Amino acid sequence: MLISIALPVAPALSTLHRESSQLDAIFWGFVASFSLPASAMLGAHYRPSTKIVAGLLSFTAGVLIALLSYDLVGVSFATGGFAPSFLGMSIGLLTYFLANRSLARIGCQFRRSCKHGGKATANTGALALVLGALIDGIPESASIGVGLMESPVVSIAMITGVFIANIPEGLASGTGLNRAGLKHSQILTIWGLVTVACTLSSWLAFIFLRGSSAFVQATLISTAGGGILAMTLQTVVPEAFDGTDDFISILGCIGFCVVFTLSHLQGPH
């Protein structure tokens, strides 16, 4: 006689909450974006070299590619199919493209590089870096609210990806603004406000997805993915390659594998 014994199943790695709510979106949006002011203060104090920041950017490139592939565009397609996925990606990509081009006109072409901040004036550098962080951080943080809406649990891959993606920009901005003459308290205030804006982005994304159709949900999910794809190709990869050359492939692959592993350890979306 064969006796079967039911063993308790370990919870998925990414199960951090059983029920998603507005407070979850706010909390995890804050956790992921907190790396901005924290890394900015480290950058202002220690002034890391361009090669260190470029190495982190290379790792970040792989992280973001995996994040948009498995936790955004992949989920969008599973939710609504091709049409809303491509529509949302087009909206997100075009929005970022236009915002980034406008930002370049006011002198913020290489905002993730330590060299940029050192060449800018305090006022211009601060404004450009803050605007840059907003157009980078909003789609990233919105992806957290989006992820909470399509799943009752928050993804460790999503939180980790956004958290890591903020670090190089924070380090570079802290270094550049400190060289431009801003005090540590001013730098902390600037990036604290950016963190608040990114947290609100996560919250608003969660709210606007409530009760919406599968088509709308899929479109909004892929919109965040389109913004992240444009950011990766326009700002992360070029500045990472500028400081690491061929090593960008190795570091980017490591970043991709980290998020790929976390995304698949969580089980199906």
Task: Report a brief summary of the structure.
The protein is mainly α and 269 residues long. The chain is 80% helix and 0% strand.
Give the helix proportion (percent range). over 70%
> What's the number of domains?
1
Mean pLDDT: 81
Query: Are there runs of 5+ residues with pLDDT below 50, and where?
Result: 1-18
Distance between the termini: 38 Å
Keywords:
disordered N terminus; 10 helices; 269 residues; mainly alpha
Describe the structure.
This protein is mainly alpha-helical and 269 residues long. It has one domain (22-265). The chain is built from 10 helices and no strands. The protein is globular and about 50 Å long. The protein starts with 21 loop residues before the first helix and ends with a helix. Residues 1-18 have low confidence and may be disordered.
Give the SSE layout:
Blueprint: H1 22-33, H2 35-46, H3 50-80, H4 82-105, H5 114-119, H6 122-150, H7 156-179, H8 184-209, H9 214-244, H10 247-265
Helix pairs in contact: 1-6, 1-7, 1-8, 2-7, 2-8, 3-4, 3-7, 3-9, 3-10, 4-6, 4-9, 6-7, 6-8, 6-9, 7-10
